[in-house]
Design a protein that fits this description.
The complex is a heterodimer of chains A (468) and B (194). Helices cover 31% and strands 16% of the residues of chain A. Chain A has 15 helices and 19 strands. In chain A, the strands form 5 sheets. A 5-stranded parallel β-sheet of chain A has the order 5-4-3-6-7. In chain A, strands 17-16-15-18-19 form a 5-stranded parallel β-sheet, covered by helices on one side. A 4-stranded parallel β-sheet of chain A has the order 11-10-9-12. In chain A, helix 2 crosses helix 5. Chain B has 194 residues and is α/β, with parallel strands linked by helices. Chain B is 30% helix and 18% strand. Chain B has 8 helices and 7 strands. The interface between A and B is large, with 72 and 54 residues. The structure holds iron/sulfur cluster. Iron/sulfur cluster binds next to loops of chain A.
Amino acid sequence: MSAKPLTLFEKLWDAHIVKPATAETPATLYVDLHLVHEVTSPQAFSVLRERGCKVRRPERTKATMDHAIPTLPSNGGGPFAAVTAEALAQIGELERNCREFGIELYPPGHERQGIVHVIAPELGLSRPGMTIVCGDSHTSTHGALGALAFGIGTSQVAHVLASQCLLLERPKTLAIDVGGRVPAGVTAKDLVLGLIARLGTGCGTGHAAEFRGEAIRALSMEERMTVCNMAVEMGARAGMVAPDEATYQYLAGRPFSPKGAAWDAALARWRKLPSDEGAVFDREESFDAGSLAPMISYGTSPGMAIPIDHAVPDPGSDASLQKALGYMGLVPGERLLGRAIDVVFIGSCTNSRISDLRLAARVFAGRRVPSSLKVLVVPGSRQVKRQAEAEGLDRIFREAGAEWRDPGCSMCLAMNGDRLEPGQYAVATSNRNFEGRQGSGGRTFLASPATAAAAAVSGRITDPRELL
Amino acid sequence: MPEPIRRLESKTVVLPIDNIDTDQIIPARFLTVTTRQGLGPRLFADWRYDAEGRPRPEFALNRPQAAGAQVLVAGHNFGCGSSREHAPWALADAGFKAVVATSFADIFRGNALKNGLLPVQVDQKTHGKLLAAPGALVVIDVEAQTIALGSHSAPFPLAPFARYCLLQGVDELQFLLSQEPAIAAYEARHAGEV
Ligand code: SF4
């Protein structure tokens, strides 16, 4: 009897079952890696104290500071320097919690500090076959390495700290087949924005999505992270890509990657993870990458995105879309190309890795940012920052007139004082264009690092293919 | 320990908008808190107040009729976006006990249930009736998994364990901790794997 063909998700799920689901109770799933940051953890540690619990597996728990910390280099100044006293207290609370419960913490200035979804892959903490959780929805990013990774709420952060487990209903499986090849001048960000625009922000609800097909296989690891990062923007519980040679090459030699015989053993296990021939998904969708153009969002939900040279669509009787266009100050039929903007933000766990910065630098090189524009380039981690500086990218950004910041979430969620003023327009490489996401009243156009850089050097929404 | 919830009777307040994300429910600048309480006044802050912090009279939650409503009716994909549990904390702190929508984002649904806030997912027809009758009295029966508006009654889905926890006021962490032997056995089976 041959075994039933299984999907990547099913293999990971089955391998982590501590106690299977019953008719009355959900499954208990083991968590291999728990990532913690300052904003969604304080109340969870309070629960541990109230209950007298310890952190069950401190060595499977890593903490960083990213959301609320300032990104101005410590010797800097400027209008956005301050974070609030409450934010400082929250940062202090994470330090205290990590000390008390024995968790390794990467605070600002530490060589491993950065945005949680940037540092865990680059340190080799996130690996194929693992279950990875964090009190942050973009934990889906780590699925790019062939892991089952998803965001959890603070109550669940407490559950994992105390028990290393979660009670979960099993999500359904969704295959997203991406055929063709992404054309020149088009990036992984355009691919995922195109996917969400086509499939909708609710298409993944209740599902773990596996991205597969020729176009996905051709992506670098960092590009796969960009795609999986935004899986949550289509509502998916998790986004995943099966591990392959690119994954193994990426992981080899990273600080937490296994070494020697342990590496060989891990590799043998990882090679068995990809979905089996004939495995059945609960749902399948397909998409052609070959006809993609650079994408830009025009509304207040990531699914409201169009090819950059298209016109803003007519909302008809769709009240949500009407409201979105009203907020954005756009009229149906209008073209976005050439529209003046106020701020450019290059950063976030979607697009702040070294390949993103290299791409942006290609557009910046030899050009100048108009003086009316504020441009922030915020590397995703200390390591990315160091690498960029070794390659001279920081000089290119600064000579063009952009600000070169310290790693953090920064203007992606505008918690730390880096924010838009009411009414301002930004082109941003982050993942959410919700009303006020980048500051009350601020208006966001989501795009790739190439498109953001093109907007930065022209002061207007510009097709990056003209400048690459 | 959460309070058990069996039945809820309340007037509604209606926000007929799709994709209400957690940044609208509670903007990020208010996430620097280290407790669960006190977020109610910040709920929907950017819709509720103008730039000077004055309540906008036209916003549904600011209308006098909304006072005391425990049931919020919204559009599809409610609670999408960030995983912040501050969203259900803020809703609960503002007095809400249930949100009714045609669909919910996964993480929000889970977070809400853990805080005794009911995500009530209804069909289009029921939703249409609720939208058409802002302020109407509804009865939500957790045990029967129904929501009733006048003579119209509709079922809503609730996972058995979530229903059990709501009805009994059971705490999931205690349930997990009681599985210690199974967790230890799992760890022993997988020792040495990386
Ligand atoms: S960069 Fe933005 S999306 Fe990513 S973890 Fe930080 S706040 Fe969340």
